[in-house]
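Next up, sample data:
>
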Amino acid sequence: MSRIAATFQQLAQRQRKALIPFFTVGDPTLTQAVPLMQALVRAGADLLELGIPFSDPMADGPTIQRSSERALKQGVTLHHVLATVAQFRALDPTTPVILMGYANPIERMGLERFAVECAQSGVDGVLVVDYPPREARSLGELLQARAIDSIYLLSPTSTAERVSEIGALATGYIYYVSLRGVTGAAHIDLDDVARQVERVRACTQVPVGVGFGIRDGATAQALARVADGIVIGSRLVEEIEASSPADLIRRVETLIADFRHSLDH
């Protein structure tokens, strides 16, 4: 059983929902990435999503775009992201780590080499935003051979065929996008999310996490009633952006601890 599957199973047994924070590796600096990951776990994160910096993050709103730009200006690459996971894994053997990014850096590295280095670094799952399911099969097979989960996005506009296709392919969990638009957008329709998550559940055996636009504990709590996990991205990246080096860890821990409290009550 993968670390991701084991984590969701343990949470279900305790009747808790997964808290999955996201930040871009290299924002604010590369040296702060591992301390940030440790702080998120201390604050109650169950899984960690790490963004691979990319120059054209089409699914991301301005907040996460800026985080990618800041990381790229420091020269952070996919190699640095994998090295960061390896450093974290040496300190934390249990918390699942998911890489989230775009196809270009992965293809530039080479699919097989990427899969090998993910396994060596301790990566547990990979989500490639701009790989449709059919195009992701080659990478998925390479990852599966190394016990690494392939995670896919579904959205309100996903067709029944796409939901069924991804439901059959996905391992680890499915990331359901709670709204139409990019990360950081607003106006989540909670009733619609509930209906859509049930539609996804009918086609898969893996847990369903919900993300995009979750900015406060009340929204996270409401969505957790229908989802297995909640992804906090833009709101966390905003906190990182607004923090000074001296108060970064404290502010991040406080924010994620607040979300953890909301999910547990």
Summary: The first helix runs from residue 3 to 13. Residues 104 and 231 are 24 Å apart (CA to CA).
